[in-house]
């Protein structure tokens, strides 16, 4: 079996590897390199941020031949992930004379068809657009040598499964098929119909040490004051966060209010056009935004270098969602923090997820422009001190009116006495 060694890579790649500051390959890169290079169909499972993209790109790109048409097809679960994988693939493919073409929804189909005429060797796209181009006979599926499903558990979920299955049916049975995700073990039964023989399962989850320290906290805060919490988070020192919502409508309302208060935020949503999504993500990566508001569309595979925080504005609907959101921080040995905003009724749901994922949760408090892991002690003034402080703010004349009681005279005037006699 081929072993991952830098000396086996093209010289230009060895230089790029060193220039990027990489040292030894990560565990998933080391263990999948040989099987993929030798043509095996692989299910690769490793923690978020452990280098899965390069784990399949490097061995598969070395097998692609220049000027021989479409040979490698990579399907991703979102447009953002497709563009990110495209950027990484281009960096390594162009160095050895290969062309990479992204095929995503929201972009011009006509332009993509024109670029397909140049016969790019590597295609990276979302299932909807790829299937559309296959049906239009613009992608020559019989030439393909390898298929990769990145974030496979997301691609094989209800709704997306049909698209991925239809694409797979158009491909030659003998081609190499690979499946990668941090939670691919959840869909192994769904993967099996995609391959003609049992795939090789490489799971390094328990052995991998690439993940940095991630602190998992919860903040008990009223639901109606979520925007207030996000405003206060935005003013923490060295703060930048991906802020996750379960619903698009809730996210949209929060964005409007935060922008009204002049905070540098933007949103990343599935109903936005390609340019808006690309612009928001790019601004966030450049540090121009303090918060990027999003849904689970950004929980898969996105890599924001040295991102310090992930904020869940409510408890995620399932444990896989929490795991992938949290995976945006603590990547490749970095430290990160995840804060989930809860109320008394939802805290039990978060604790259930934490138990399933073996995560240690701690309560955190937002006070005085800082996050505290212990409840802050607020000194209370005595009533006497408070009263004295209030009186000092009032003028002497007003104070006399407010605090000097008017004594009622017990003696009746002569007129009052006479009036009583007349009534009698």
**Which of globular, elongated, flat, extended, rod-shaped describes the shape?**
globular
Q: What proportion of the residues is helical, as a percent range? A: 25-40%
N-to-C span: 123 Å
- Give the CATH class of the largest domain: Alpha Beta
> So, CATH architecture of the largest domain?
3-Layer(aba) Sandwich
Q: How much of the residues is beta strand, in percent?
A: 15-25%
In CATH terms, what is the fold-level topology of the largest domain?
Rossmann fold
Helix-and-strand structural type: alpha/beta
Largest sheet: 7 strands, parallel
Q: For the record, what is the CATH homologous superfamily label of the largest domain?
A: P-loop containing nucleotide triphosphate hydrolases
> Mean pLDDT, nearest integer?
86
- Taking all Cα atoms into account, the compactness measure Rg is 31 Å
How many beta strands in the DSSP annotation? Answer: 16
Q: Unreliable stretches, pLDDT < 50, 5 or more residues?
A: 381-406
How many distinct domains?
2
Number of helical segments with 4 or more residues = 17
- The main sheet orders its strands as 3-4-2-5-6-1-7
Question: Could you explain the architecture of this structure?
Answer:
There is one protein chain. The protein is α/β, with parallel strands linked by helices. The protein has two domains: about 5-205, P-loop containing nucleotide triphosphate hydrolases (Rossmann fold), CATH 3.40.50.300; about 215-370, P-loop containing nucleotide triphosphate hydrolases (Rossmann fold, 3-Layer(aba) Sandwich). It has 17 helices and 16 strands. A seven-stranded parallel sheet has the order 3-4-2-5-6-1-7, with helices on both faces. Strands 10-11-9-12-13-8-14 form a seven-stranded parallel sheet, with helices on both faces. Strands 15-16 form a two-stranded antiparallel sheet. A hairpin with a 2-residue loop joins β15 (about 365) and β16 (about 370). The chain starts with 10 loop residues before the first helix and ends with a helix. This is DEAD/DEAH box helicase. One of its GO terms (cellular component) is ribosome. One of its GO terms (biological process) is response to cold. GO terms for molecular function: ATP binding; hydrolase activity; RNA helicase activity; RNA strand annealing activity.
